[in-house]
């Protein structure tokens, strides 16, 4: 079927490629003409403006917007709405906050325009592996667009079938799911990323414990400010972290795609020295924590994982200074210099 | 090659089956004669006592002990040592604390007996999938036993090769790894399980947030003791948790074997009502936390995951009572009854 | 000076009493005539409606609103604004979200009405001890009202002077502080309560560890699902929690008012059996966590304390069920029944 | 009564001064003759060796050991035991691990020597304020020494009496408590310090949130790697942290001695720039966490506070590098440089 794509960055371009590979007809636009030209060369129909793009679509139209969340998405959706007609559909495939979907969907509904939000996971590997799609919006609209989602998703063969599931593979088994009304797709994607933060932290903390398993062989300092290591004989391992990540990939309970990637990173650079350790966070982890708080659901692991990222960027500095100042006040403890 | 197995529970029996399937010659013993008989029927050589078992082995002997950690392992290793000779090897494949390995290995070394500790992951699926093996001990001894480990491990084909790895697959790529000297295998397995706790908690917390995404549709209570939900319109989703776990299995960043199992559990029982939510912990998560503390390595996610398990069993009760008592004291706040 | 009080609950009434005791002239209103009558009998000027109250005040008027946050405050402020004139001031002394202050202050400024937000701490003890006041609003307006704040606050004598502070005691040393523009008072009060959650959790967790210090004397279960206590001989104390809270009140680093209250509660009921342990939270702890998240400031202790409260109310149930389900799937581990 | 003090550092010397001020007869020893001489000048009886010290005491003797925990205490106690007789008592007032007390007490009991462990809190302020004493050992021995403890403790007047307590003030109300048998004193002191870590972290995190309340006025970066601040208008406060710490000292729910000290530190240096933020930990916080883990008691706040200290010293570095490496692998996300 016909689909338009606005925003031809890495993600947008790769979506178009998967769609075309499945036989869909893609009309594309980007503010950078070179991106449009590149995909035109691969079989897409280029366009010069949003108006031009809309003009090249048959009704009811479907336009997939794949631009940065926040202002850019707001802008493109607003302008698109000017050109579209009742019955057309805008699909937001970016990382929008699900609350914006709810507001946006309601505003567009007043003009008869449908709105579908799609949380998309898969990263730089998605073109090859397919993308996992979490979808929000009206059921019949999402249903009509299913062939597009099926083309983008990995398909049922990407994982062994879950025991107990029978019959024709459900969409969830193919890698896409209509989660609920407006915002539900991005809500589920948000929590997906919140979980991702927790998983990543679990691996990272564990590997760090392994990496420091030789602390007992270091010269032990003995002063009133340092907790002595009671049994240095139990911490004398010099472990090969890259090999450990590798061995866990096969047969262990903690095998995962994130572990596969970790093994890749460690195979390239066993001590990861090219990373400074300042870890970014891009919104969804924060929003997940806020959702947990507002729901009153305890999510201490996910929140702690988020806090660790903030800490990695030095944002705990004043708190730490406060602790040292208190210790100085009550115990006369001077700070120890870095080793 | 020849190998003896002591302890023919589910794990021990399945190890024997994988070993025999690879052509190894297994001599087996268990205090339960029926277990011995069962495996004899499958091709193993049965024995009637540890002495009998040892007598049936050619030197240098290798005896794999697969009995519960702690007292039982201590007992079997001790008795075996009475019957073995210098040059023989005892392999502890259970869940021993790595510190016990260090002590035990040292004691056996005085008698010329080698000791190898093997952390084994794979659970009830290991017979089919193979087991991930984390191994500690002397390098040449471990090397000599490698054909056994290779038979038990999943093999290189169990996962796609990590980019950047070339040549003959290393043992880690086949699913077994010599991690270091005595205790190193169980140390790595311990941290493996600590990570497992963190991963599990991340999924569990995230799914719980999804499950409570409809809290805005419930009647909102308004009293001074309840934080009101400022925006109930953002929490009106009725999500299909089983389908969400399923869709994440394909193409998403958080796909993993634990997620596969979660999807299986939810496909069987979407609300998991047959579980009371009292979560056990079996030692390794605690030991991992202790190792982090002794190393001075921050592991707040792993420790918080552990604390959540303790809390699930009601062990936070007095702490919670204390909080309510404080609130009563300073604010005259009465506790609210359960809904 | 003259001041009006709207809302004569425990807090409002006690504020009026402290104000009158300091010689201020109080005009009071409440929807419950009995409350008005009671304070009239103590020297306040009663009124029958907001209009009546406003009519009894000389310009520029100052009206302190002490009603529940959210809808009730919104309503009273809105109605008051109808009756007030440019140059008058509304003081919100409740537990409003500071963001509401910012919005409200801006709306009232359009009509020339000043808005002052006052975070008030002191609980049921405030009438006697005085209240700690954290104040937001325009500097000159707050300055003009200072005699009122000074009457409500505990005064400089309530604590020993901080070393290094000299001269006339600053307002902060008397127990009230102009923190910044609109919302700053409630912002600081919000974080104050966030800290309170953390402090309370620290005491509660510690006391719980003490209470369970005799776990080594209990019969130890030995099964594969329970982490055995390696050294029961180190956990054989039967500690007197009430006495411990008491002894810490004098000379220890952790003495505090919250500890005083804890000692009181434990003196009344050493095992706190009358508390179910379902701990409420009333908003500020959540908002503090959200502020930390939005600022990108790591606050893992405060967030974990909040999560513990959620957990105390059973909101971790589905997460715990999920953990048990995973354990069943990978290890065949059945849940253990409650003891 | 007569008491000997071994170890005349700051703590030991100040204990002697409080004891002498209360009329007790002190015999003192330190490896540094100058310390002995100083206290002799204040009225103590000096000695030249442990043997000399013991020789100057009437039976049954009581010797208070106030030297660093671990090796030094072990050494002094061992040598003292050579010189003492059955019926004498050794008091360990240092920061010993309570498990060492249990072992030591048992060994000394074989020779008829009593052992009393005393956890001492009060820091550099103790001489003036008195020390809070948590005591373990045999009841009659502790009872006999009570006049000494009473002299060191702050006394009943140091805090208002807890409502509900009547009659002659109990020892706990005077600031010393016999907690239980050998080790109980240091066990309670250990948890005391664990709580201290949690309290300190709560204040530090909260103050850090306040300090960053102006983040909305900074230029906002907008890129895919940074979570944008949705509402900068809510984060435009420039708060006076020192004044806030001060105002909370009077009338607020979170007033405490630690807050008093924090206010002092901030009055001296409002931005604490002389502190690097590398926070030490000296053992008890770690042991408290281990006790919680071994008891199976959830202490997520105390453990998280501990982890934050480890993190402040950079021990999370490899974990953070791992997170950045994973993000690079799945999303092609480059790390952002420090601002």
UniProtKB/TrEMBL annotation, chains A, B, C, D:
InterPro entries reported for this sequence: 6-PGluconate_DH-like_C_sf, 6DGDH_YqeC, 6PGD_dom2, 6PGDH_C, 6PGDH_NADP-bd, NAD(P)-bd_dom_sf, Pgluconate_DH
GO BP terms: D-gluconate metabolic process; pentose-phosphate shunt
Keyword Oxidoreductase part of the UniProt annotation: yes
Record SUPFAM superfamilies: 6-phosphogluconate dehydrogenase C-terminal domain-like, NAD(P)-binding Rossmann-fold domains
Keywords: Gluconate utilization, Oxidoreductase
A GO molecular function held by the record: NADP binding
Residues in 6-phosphogluconate dehydrogenase C-terminal domain copies: 185-334
PANTHER family documented for this protein: 6-PHOSPHOGLUCONATE DEHYDROGENASE
Stated family: Belongs to the 6-phosphogluconate dehydrogenase family.
NCBIfam families reported for this sequence: gnd_rel (TIGR00872), PRK09599.1 (NF007161)
Protein name per its UniProtKB record: 6-phosphogluconate dehydrogenase
Classification of source organism: Bacteria, Bacillati, Actinomycetota, Actinomycetes, Micromonosporales
